[in-house]
Design a protein that fits this description.
mainly alpha; rod-shaped
Length: 48
């Protein structure tokens, strides 16, 4: 899953950029957790 942002940091206020960066990081963490869960689920199914 590729997320592409075409926003320049200078175009946003520093506060807005900070919020955006936190949102991006949280999204990436959530996606990573989902991928890990799926991989674990698949590996458990294979072990059975």
């Amino acid at each position: 899953m590729h997320i592409h942002f075409d926003i320049s940091p200078t175009g946003l206020s520093k506060v807005g950029w900070r919020y955006l960066r936190e949102a991006v990081i949280n999204t990436m963490i959530a996606v990573t957790r989902q991928n890990v869960r799926l991989k674990l689920r698949v590996s458990f199914d294979v072990q059975r």
